[in-house]
Amino acid sequence: MRELPQNVTPPANGDANEAEHLYSRRFVLSGAGAMTLLGMAGCSTSTLELPQFQLDDTVTGSVRPIRPAISVDKNVTGPDVMYASLNDGGFEVPAVPYQKVKPEFRRQIVVNETGEAPGTIVVHLQERKLYLVQEGGDAIRYGVGIGKDGFRWSGRANIQYGKEWPTWTPPPEMIQRKPELVKWQNGQPGGLTNPLGARALYIYQDGKDTGYRIHGSPEWASIGQAMSSGCVRLINQDIIDLYSRVSKKNPVVVV
């Protein structure tokens, strides 16, 4: 039997076991009371601030600070705002029925897991997503449509320049595949039906034009699909947003 502390008086009947039980119960209750006080302190307006930690599953027993919430951007809001109709360059860009676009392909801010530096454009072909890496550990993610098998390009390059409401000129090999495009052999003016959409970013590698573009498209239903001739297409509202954030020579990584 454990020795009782000095401030615990054994019962008059001398039952030592009962005394030990009373001591144990007093210990448990006092501990519970202390925990209650701690819990109440956590709801108070005390100025004491403790660091937050969470378990890191990659190293057993280690801890790391909780990452702050992702940033806020006035141009990444609700889909009803982002994909509303807008007037741009004299063209009335129609609203997109965003309810028919999978949520994962709508513009949003996410944690940057690309491993690339801020300012880099990362196109993930398998995911059908484009990431523009931001400062502070975030990225803006856009859904994209990509090239069909046999028309895809991958590697590292740069944005050489961009154009608003660009002219589209089909290459000779495309005209051979689709003779009806011969009418645009000298270029289709920019507009709502132009395949390049509201904006185009021209990808160069080692100073040479790759022939591939990151551009808008009036065909919002093609986002998330592999049906282009190799270029990366975005919803028109999304390419307008991306274009506003990109400057000359932004790195591009297509994987």
Helix and strand arrangement:
Elements lengths: L15 H27 L10 E3 L7 E3 L13 H4 L3 E3 L2 E3 L14 E4 L9 E4 L4 E5 L4 E6 L2 E2 L7 E10 L7 H6 L21 E7 L2 E10 L8 E3 L3 E4 H10 L5 E4 L1
Parallel strand pairs: 6-15, 9-13, 12-14
Antiparallel strand pairs: 1-2, 3-4, 5-8, 6-7, 7-8, 10-11, 10-15, 11-12
Verbal overview:
By secondary structure, the protein is an alpha+beta fold. Helices cover 18% and strands 28% of the residues. The chain contains 4 helices and 15 strands. It has helices spanning 16-42, 79-82, 172-177, 236-245, and strands at residues 53-55, 63-65, 86-88, 91-93, 108-111, 121-124, 129-133, 138-143, 146-147, 155-164, 199-205, 208-217, 226-228, 232-235, 251-254. A hairpin with a 7-residue loop joins strand 1 (53-55) and strand 2 (63-65). The relative contact order is 0.15. Residues 18-65 have low confidence and may be disordered.
What's the CATH topology label of the largest domain? L,D-transpeptidase catalytic domain-like
Task: Based on Cα principal axes, name the global outline.
Answer: globular
> For the report, how would you describe the main beta sheet?
9 strands, mixed
Helix content: 10-25%
- Continuous helix count: 4
Would you identify the CATH architecture of the largest domain?
Answer: Beta Barrel
**Fourth CATH level, the homologous superfamily of the largest domain:** L,D-transpeptidase catalytic domain-like
Assess the beta-strand content as a share of residues: 25-35%
**Kindly, what is the distance between the CA atoms of the first and last residues, rounded to a whole number of angstroms?**
71 Å
- The SSE string, one letter per element, is HEEHEEEEEEEEHEEEEHE
What ranges have pLDDT less than 50 throughout 5 or more consecutive residues? 18-65
